[in-house]
Amino acid sequence: MKLHIDFRGNRKIALPDSADTERRKLSPPIPQGRIHLSHQLHEPLHMMFVEDLSEDFINHISGEHILLFVNYDVDAVCACRILQNLFRSESTLYTLVPVEGTQELVEAYKRFSDKVKYVVFINCGGSIDLVETLEPEPDVLMFVIDSHKPSDICNVYSRSQVRLLGKPDESENIPQFEDIFLDTDTEPESEEEEVNEEALKKRRERKLWEEKRNRVMFDYTQFSFCGRASSLVVFELIWNLGKDDLESLWWAIVGLTYQTVMGLIVEQKYACELQVLQLHLSRLTSISQNDVEANRSQFYRITAQKDLRLVLYRHWNVQASLRHTICSALKLKLWTVRSEKRLYQVLAEIGLPLKDSLQNFSSMDVTLRNEFFSMVETIANNHDLDELIYHSFTVSVCYGNNFFQASDYVYAMICLLEDTMKDKSRGSCFSNCIDSLSPTKYNLVLNGIEKCKKLFTSIVRLVQSMLDMKQIISAGPFLYFIINENTSDYSLYAHPMSLAMLARYALNACASQSNYRKHGSLPLIVSAPQSEENCIVLGIPPVTEYVPRNFFGKAFDQALETINTEPILSYFDSAAVRISIKDRPKFFDSLSTILS
Amino acid sequence: MWGDKAIELIKELERSTEIFPPFDDDKIRLILEECRVLNQFIEDAMNSTFHPETNNYLAGVKARTAALERNKRCLLAYQWNRLQMLRKMRWEFGSILPVEIKANMSEGEVAWFAKYSKALANYMKGIGGRNGLNLMLDMQPPKDLYIEVRCLKDFGKLELDTGEVFYLSQNSQHYMPRSQVENLVRQGVLEHINWS
C-alpha cells in the first residue's frame, strides 16, 4: 500500500509574525516545566501541549466568554458535561455548539465567534490546521482537547494561538520541529542569478531536506488512531482544581468505556486508565460518605467490579444479550441454524434454566441474578469466552434499583445521539444525550437502551442476511458493502457511530466465516444513505490489526482528490466522510487503485 | 354611641377578604358628620359663659373631645393601613396597578401612589452607578446569577450589558446572566436547562 503524500508547502515559515509577538505579551509567561520542550535551546520551538491544565487553562478562561465546540460522540459529550460544571463553578459564560464535521465547524465558527476571545474544541479540530481553516482574529486563543490523533503538525507547533490540552502520547511520534519547518531567513533568495557551487550545494541540501520532510510527514499522518479519552483529560483537570465529584467521575468512566466498547483503544490502555479511575473512586466515595450533608453526588453510587461484556444484559434477557454480543456470537457462530443447539448447551452449562434465560434479566430469580456473573465466569474458559469478562463499573442512580453498567450508558448515549428517526434534528439529539447524563434524568438512558436493543437486533439481522446473500464484496485491497434504501432499517445507520458498530460486527463475522477466510486480514468500508443525494462512507481497520489504527483517513483524502470532488462533510473521525451518492462508484474505484 | 362608626370602619377593613377593599366614602362622611356635631357642641360650650351649676359643660366637653380624638385616630389608622397595602402592591405589581384595584382607590390615594412611584423611581435612578439599579428585580436573591439555557429557535445576536455577544441559534446552549435571559425565556426563544 503506497500513498503519495503531498504535504502543504512552507506556509508558517515566516516566524515570528507580529500577531504572535503581541499575543505573547498578553498571555502570562509560561514556566518551562509545564511545556514540553522539544528543543531546549530555542525557546520558540516548543510544542504547545499544556500539561498542567489547572493553571494555564483556568487562568485564561475564568470569567471570560468561552466558545465551546463539541463533536457528536459519547466521549465528547461526557467531557463537555464535566467542563460545563467547571464553567458554572467559575461563573464563566459559555456558548456550546455541537458540530459534526470540518465544514460545519468552519460555518459555526463564523457565526458564533463574534467578540469571542477563547475557543475550546472537544474531540474536534485537533487534526485540522485550525489557524488556517478558521482564520481567527490574532488575539483569539484556542484550546484543543481532541482524542483524534495524529494532531495536525501546525497545531502542535503553533506558538501563539493553539494549545493542545493533555500529555503528548509517546506513540504519536511527533516529528521534530526542524524536520518540518524551515526558517525563511536561511533560504537563498537569489537562486537564479548566480549558479555557483555554494548555491548548488544549498539547493541539494534543501532538496534532501524536503524529501526527508515528506517522508517524516507521511509516517506521521499515515494512520489515524485514538488517543486518550477527552473526558479523562478534563476529569484530571478538575481533579487538579479540587472540584471533582462522583458525578464527573462517572462521566469520565463513561467516556473511557466508550473508547473500549467501540474498539478504539487497546485493552492494555483501558486497563491502565481503569486502575487510576478505581483509585479516584475509592477516594471520592470515602469523602462523600464522611460528608454529613446530603449532597448531589449521592445520586450516584458507583462500584468497580468485574463484569460481563454482554451487551445491555441487565436490561434485556440473557439469550438476546448472548446473541447480540460480538464476541459470544462469533465464538458460538450464533447466526447459523445449528448454533441454537450450541447456545442451549452453553446455557445449560451456565446452569440457567431456559425459561429464565428468555425472561427479562431484572425479573429473573434473585439467586440466579446474583450468581449470574460467577456462573458465566466458571464456564467462560471452556468455550473460549474469556473475552466476555472484564473490569468495569456499575452505577445505581437515585437510590432506586436502577443498575447500569458503564457500557449500558455508552450504548444508550450512542442511540440518543444518533436517533434521527422521527425527523429530529441532530442538535436536539445532542441536547437529549447531554441531558441523559444528569442523574435525575436517567429515564432518558432507559429510553436510549430501548432504542439500542432495536439497533442491535437490526445489526444482527442485517449481518446475517449479508453473509447469507454474500453481499460483502471484496474489491481487492478491501472489503465493502453498501446499505441502500431497500435495506430494512437503513436509516438507523445514517451516522458514524451506529454505522461503525455495524461495520465491526460485520467484519468480525466475516473473518470467522470460512468462505471469507482468505479475506480475513482485509479492512472494511461500509456506506449508507443519509438523504436522497448524500451518503456516508466509513472505513474500519482489519480485525488482525492489533492496535486499532486506521489508514482510511489519508486514503479517503487521496481518493477524493483523484476524482476531484470536495467531500460534503468530512467527519472529525477522518475515516468517515459524507459524499454525494453519484460520486460513490468513482470514489470506490479510485480507492481501490490507490490502495492496491 | 360616639365612635361606633369609626370602629366599624376599621373592623370592616380588617374583615374584608378582598385584596384591596373599596374606599368607604359613605361611612367616612358619616364619621365626619359626627365629628362636626361633636365639634359644634364644644365650640358652642366654649362661647358660652361657665357657671358651676347652670352651665357646667366641663364633663360634656371632655367626653366629646375624647370621642373626637378617637374618631381621628380611627380614620388615620384606616388610611394608613390602606396605604401600606398600596405600597406592598407597588413592589409586587409594579407602577401599573390592575384595574380592579384602581377602581377601589380614592382620589387622594391615587395621588399618593403616583408620588410614591415617582420617589421610588428617582431613588433607583440615583443608586447603582450610571444606569441605576432596578430594585424590583430579584426580590428574593436568586440561587445563581447565571443560568444554563438552550436555544429553541434562531434568534440572532444578543449583546449583553457587559459587551459579550451571544449568537442565539437553534440547539446551541449558553450560560449567561439570568437577568438578561428572563425575557427571552418568557418569549419562548430560550429554555432553561434544569439538570439537578
UniProtKB/TrEMBL annotation, chain A:
* Compartment annotation: Nucleus
Q: What are the GO MF terms of this UniProt record?
A: chromatin binding; DNA replication origin binding; single-stranded DNA binding
Biological process terms in GO annotation: DNA replication initiation; double-strand break repair via break-induced replication; mitotic DNA replication preinitiation complex assembly
Q: Name one Pfam family in it.
A: CDC45
Which keywords annotate this record?
Answer: Cell cycle, DNA replication, Nucleus
The reply on keyword Nucleus is yes
Mention any one GO cellular component term assigned to this protein in its UniProt record: DNA replication preinitiation complex
Q: Which InterPro entries does the protein's record reference?
A: CDC45, DHH_sf
Family per similarity comment: Belongs to the CDC45 family.
Q: What is this protein called?
A: Uncharacterized protein
Origin species, per record, is Apolygus lucorum
From TrEMBL, chain B:
This protein's major location comes to nucleus
Supply the InterPro entries for this chain. Answer: GINS_A, GINS_bundle-like_dom_sf, GINS_Psf1, PSF1_C
Quote the subcellular location field of this record.
Nucleus
Summary of the function given for this chain in its UniProt record = Required for correct functioning of the GINS complex, a complex that plays an essential role in the initiation of DNA replication, and progression of DNA replication forks. GINS complex seems to bind preferentially to single-stranded DNA.
UniProt subunit comment = Component of the GINS complex.
The similarity annotation says: Belongs to the GINS1/PSF1 family.
- Protein's recorded name: DNA replication complex GINS protein PSF1
Q: Give the source species.
A: Apolygus lucorum (Small green plant bug)
